[in-house]
Predict the 3D structure of the following.
Amino acid sequence: MGADIHGIVEVKKNGVWKVNRVKIFPNPCKDELYLEMLDLDITGKFHFEIFNNIGIKLNEEEFRLSKENRIFGFDTEQMICKPCYLRITDNKNTQTLKFLKH
């Protein structure tokens, strides 16, 4: 696997901002990209979008994050982008992480 990127997603929970560590791998990716939410106390529905470097949306999915379900996979085989961007959104907050595609 290539180098990992650790991002930070800030999630407001009970009126308090919580810093959530995120790992995307492999980076650069070829056919699949995985995202792992590292903080176990963050749960709920998250919306994920992948964009190319000029802002065209290439993929969009929603996942329910639970204590048991922490890793999500995205099919990137047909994507053409260098670099690519993964946008993570919950009810009120958005964070964007950059990754590379072979």
About this structure: The mean pLDDT is 82. The radius of gyration is 13 Å. The longest strand covers residues 16-27.
